[in-house]
Specification:
By secondary structure, the protein is of the alpha/beta class. The protein contains 16 helices and nine strands. Helix 8 (147-156) crosses helix 10 (174-198), helix 10 packs parallel to helix 11 and helix 11 (215-236) runs parallel beside helix 12 (252-260). The structure holds coproporphyrinogen III. Substrate binds at residues 26-30, 76, 153, 208, 323.
């Protein structure tokens, strides 16, 4: 395989490497001064997402600075709802605001899954440019939000601490909720396949709020949609690894792995690596350093980084954080983390 020498691809294919490949969730972001400068040139965050030149530039910035083993496409999980017809804007200092979907009429106003590509064409162009510009050793990761997490924003119209609006819709109007999950699932498959066609070598499914699903609903709204997405990608794009990230799934990480057949599991900060190795044998594990250590730094960062590498050393591992790097992180601490991993 042409990509066979990239460390990330080797780890995802199940190889245990002496030094794990490394990348970070949110590696292109506000903790980098060069990101803030490009972001200021773009205007809004969404303008940046839809400008292939600038989105390519910010994706490459952390690769140039740190030499990560993978780049992740610069975009957002909420571009899919927007492409389905939701109004979307990001309020500075607050977060996303969307038009809400709480009933059959709202659902009827959304476009079909196949209609998303017109809006998302600039994202595919960014993927093409990245594939042409990335160093030969750097893998390109595409991504989408998982249906449940995307639905939580579409139902509430914003981020919520407990995803109560989406949970409420499950209990009060399950047919509408199921239809929404179905629409997002179809759009996600179409979106990821276009990213793969454009040059994404790996895709990651972000289910950031999987931990908010009641246990009885985890299978229906986290595992099953992910299983459908994985199966559709495997059928149309065999050989492209899929990383699943059911954040906060706890003990459900096991049933998620079994139900979906993902190539790798991204573990959040709460998961004990030793438990994960025992409970999830044979699968590539990604994670899971506490991102706060990149704010606090010092010898605690060195110790935790080395402990993380050692704890996962018995099998295929992709070093990452347990969640995204935060805007108050110090880039010098990222260098320090990389020295502790790579020596
Ligand atoms: C829930 C979610 C979103 N977006 C995403 C998730 C799932 C992962 C997670 O749990 O973090 C995923 C995401 N968002 C972004 C990426 C790009 C790739 C990467 O570097 O990881 C990815 C993979 C850029 C971004 N997405 C966002 C930024 C900050 C925008 C800015 O420059 O102001 C970036 C770099 C904005 C965003 N986007 C979203 C929110 C709630 C916010 C606002 C909160 C915040 O400001 O941090 C939705």
């Amino acid at each position: 395989m042409r990509t066979g020498t990239k460390l990330l691809m080797r780890a995802l294919a199940g190889e245990t490497l002496a030094v794990p490949p490394v990348w970070m969730m949110r590696q292109a972001g506000r903790y980098l001064p060069e990101y803030r400068a490009t972001r200021a040139r773009a205007g809004s965050f969404l303008d940046l997402c839809y400008d292939p030149d600038l989105a390519t530039e910010v994706t490459l910035q952390p690769i140039r600075r740190f030499g990560f083993d993978a780049a992740i496409l610069f975009a957002d999980i909420l571009l899919v709802p927007q492409a389905l017809g939701a109004d979307l804007r990001f309020v500075e200092g607050e977060g996303p605001r969307l038009s809400t979907v709480t009933g059959a009429e709202d659902l009827a106003r959304l476009g079909p899954a196949e209609a998303i590509h017109e809006t998302l064409a600039p994202v595919y162009e960014t993927v093409r440019r990245l594939r042409a510009e990335l160093p030969a050793e750097t893998a390109l990761i595409g991504f989408a939000g998982a249906p449940w997490t995307v639905a939580t924003y579409m139902v509430a119209g914003r981020g919520t601490p407990d995803q109560a609006p989406a949970r409420r819709l499950i209990y009060t109007d399950r047919p509408v909720f199921d239809a929404l999950i179905e629409r997002i699932t179809e759009a996600t498959i179409a979106y990821l396949l276009r990213q793969i066609e454009a040059g994404a070598e790996v895709v990651k499914l972000f289910d950031s709020w999987a931990g908010a699903l009641p246990g009885a609903e985890f299978d229906a709204y986290c595992a099953r949609p992910a299983a459908r997405i994985v199966a559709a990608l495997r059928a149309a794009a065999p050989g492209v690894p899929v990383i699943g990230f059911p954040r906060g799934a706890g003990g459900n990480y096991q049933s998620f792995a079994a139900a979906t057949g993902v190539s790798a599991l991204a573990l959040d900060t709460s998961v004990d690596p030793a438990w994960a190795r025992r409970a999830l044998p044979g699968i590539c594990l990604q994670g899971n350093l506490d991102p706060l250590l990149l704010v606090t730094g010092g010898s605690a960062l060195d110790a935790a980084t080395r402990a993380c590498v050692a704890a996962f050393a018995g099998g295929p591992h992709v070093f990452n954080l347990g969640h995204g790097i935060t805007p108050d992180a110090d880039p010098a601490n990222v260098e320090r983390m990389l020295r502790a991993i790579r020596g």
